[in-house]
Amino acid sequence: MLTFNTQKKITTKFAKPLLIAGLLTLGLTACNDNDNDVPPPVDPPIETPMEYSYSVTLSNLTYAQPLSPAAVLLHGDAKMWQVGQAASVALEKLAEGGDNADFIALENNLATAMAEGPTLPGTSVTVNITTMDPAASYLTVATMLVNTNDAFAGLTGVDISTLTLNQEKSWRLNVYDSGTEQNNEAAGTIPGPADGGVGYDSTRDDIDLVGYHSGVVSKDDGLPSSVLTQAHRFDNPAVKLTITRTK
User: Fold this and answer.
1) Cα–Cα 20 to 30 A to 224, which of 133, 155, 195, 209?
2) pTM of the model
3) Which residues have a Cβ under 8 Å from the Cβ of 71 and sit 6 or more positions away?
4) Are 188 and 198 in contact (CB under 8 A)?
């Protein structure tokens, strides 16, 4: 028969392992509970790209100077021409012949659009352009006065990033000379209806610097060899441009 003292020793002998095992089990259970409380990872929300849309309206303020199909470009911070610097070939083609294909295809352009046809004197044309690229926040517009050698109107590198929805901004545009063809107004050199002559010619026979145009002289005002008349003269500004953010 076991005595009280013997039973106490046996109980004490097995109590410590049982206590340790119980603590371990409790710890594991607590760990499992903590794991269950960790929320599953959440994927970040997918941002829908914003669409930016603009309506660009050109009004021809001249009496007898049709405007070539206007090129409308959205791009990063850059200018497509600068007064006192040589014109690019793409600008030369637009200014001498009204051909905007190369101008629209410039690699820096992020969005492009063009008018469907010429803008006749006293009329307006509207071109819509859309982009989803937030970097396309600078505007360039260019058009040729086709009854000239190499005159064009436009603006370039204008920051439109601050335009709010339905806000509009307007400019009255002076006329530039691309400086790539002499303003001799001679027969065969004017691509517009006043002559129907040659447009772009790769030979540059003028000062080869973009500047402000001095205007048409015409045969009525002292240039006998000119095919132009007083009707083809123009005053500055020659074009009004308005842009409205529509989306």
Assistant:
1) 209
2) 0.81
3) 94, 100, 103, 104, 112, 114, 140, 141, 142, 143
4) yes
Q: What is the pLDDT of residues 60-81, one digit of tens each?
A: 999 999 999 999 999 999 999 9
Phi-psi domain of 153 (left: phi exceeds 0; alpha: psi -120 through 50; beta: other): beta
Return all residues near 138 (Cβ < 8 A) that are at least 6 apart.
74, 75, 76, 77, 78, 157, 158, 159, 160
Q: Which of 19-23, 68-72, 95-99, 232-236 has the lowest mean pLDDT?
A: 19-23
Report the distance separating Cα 173 and Cα 144, nearest Å.
Answer: 12
pLDDT computed for residue 44 by the predictor: 77
**Alpha-carbon gap, residue 66 to 118, rounded angstroms:** 6
How many Å separate Cα 188 from the centre of its chain? 36
Choose among 127, 75, 103: nearest CA to 242: 127
Confidence band, pLDDT 50/70/90 cuts, at residue 136: very high
Task: Give the pLDDT band (50/70/90) at residue 35.
Answer: low
Structure tokens at 20: 């340790």
Nearest alpha carbon to residue 143 among 206, 207, 192: 192
Tokens of 31: 């760990």
Whole-number Å distance between alpha carbons of 196 and 192: 5
Distance of CA 131 to the CA centre of its chain: 8
Domain regions of the chain by residue span: 52-245
Is domain 52-245 annotated with CATH 2.40.420.20? no
